[in-house]
Amino acid sequence: MHDFAKLHVEDWAKRHGLLAGIALLFAATLAWLGAFGSHDFEPFARVGYWTVIFLVQYGLAAVTMPLLRAWPPLAAGSMVHRVALGTAITSVPMFFVTAAASMSEGTWTPVPSEVFELILAIWIIGGAYLFLWEKLSSAPFPAGRSVEAATPPIPNPPAEAASRHAPATDGLLFERLPPELGRDVICLGNEDHYVRVHTTLGNALILMRFADALDSLSAMEGQRVHRSWWVSRSAVVRIDRFGRTARLQLRNGLTVPVSQPYLALAKRLWGPTHGTVAA
Fold it and tell me: Which Pfam families match (predicted)?
């Protein structure tokens, strides 16, 4: 357990070191270019100006983007939607920080034309940084040091200790799943070349193909409901219909999307729709 937690801390530190480094790279590049009127600043003032701007941008992204990724309506949605909303949210404090920094250099006045130019610059620069942030932070880092690679295969328990009603746990998925997460799988989510496995005890990211993960669960009672999601039949609390799609509310609090090809089957498995039907 200690090694598992240590690897997660190392992964977090490396990821944020990379993201902070990219922020400083943005700052150095824009300072060198003298972008958005900063060419009028003294060299050291220009470097300091952009460094402050991007350290604030990094801090805002570190708070905003994980919250958006954890919000059920956006968790399984498009990355573009999260980046757009994140840019809209962070642009408000970034406007005041950038305006204050620019006014301190005496190169900016709050007239309509300059306000518009500043807002446009914040959206362009902030959106580009948040796009890279979301792209890099949503992928495991690095692949060679993943938690799963350091997790030894799970030894086969003695036959007398296994419950006769327990689902089969053979296959690559259960060999790589950390033992402390148990074997009561609630759902799987596909994340690029990785699979996020949610159990009743937590979740872990495993390097493997989604198809191989599904093969490992072939003996369990569950259903694929989306090209990127599989859920245990017993984990569903209710199904909410939204037009030609739906969402499953799971007992661990997760919301899983149901795509149109799986909608009819999902309705048969989990009963009548509850909630508001989209117009």
Answer: LytTR (PF04397)
In a domain, 213, yes or no: no
Q: 271 near 246, Cβ under 8 Å?
A: no
Which element (helix H / strand E) includes 188? strand 185-191
**What residue type is 93 in one-letter code?**
P
**Domain presence at residue 23:** yes
Three-state SS letters, 203-250: EEEEECCHHHHHHHCCCCCEEEEECCEEEEHHHEEEEEEECCEEEEEE
- Angle, in degrees to the nearest 10, between helices 79-104 and 112-137: 130
Residue entry with tokens 């005496």: 106
Q: How far is CA 257 from the centre of its chain?
A: 15
Are 90 and 64 in contact by the 8 Å Cβ rule? The answer is: yes
* Domain membership flag for residue 68: yes
Q: What burial letters (b/e) apply to 61-84, b meaning 16+ CB within 10 Å? A: beebbeebbeeeebebeeeeebbe
- With both helix axes pointing from N to C terminus, report the angle between 2-33 and 43-70 in degrees, rounded to the nearest 10: 140
pTM above threshold 0.70: no
Q: Total structural domains in the chain?
A: 1
Q: Which domain holds residue 81?
A: 2-137
Distance of CA 252 to the CA centre of its chain: 18
Is the model's pLDDT at 139 over the cut of 80? Answer: no
User: Between 63 and 146, where is the model more confident?
Assistant: 63
Neighbour count for residue 213 (Cβ, 10 Å) = 25
How does pLDDT run across 206-260, given as a tens digit for each residue? 888 888 888 888 888 889 999 889 999 999 998 887 777 788 989 888 889 888 8
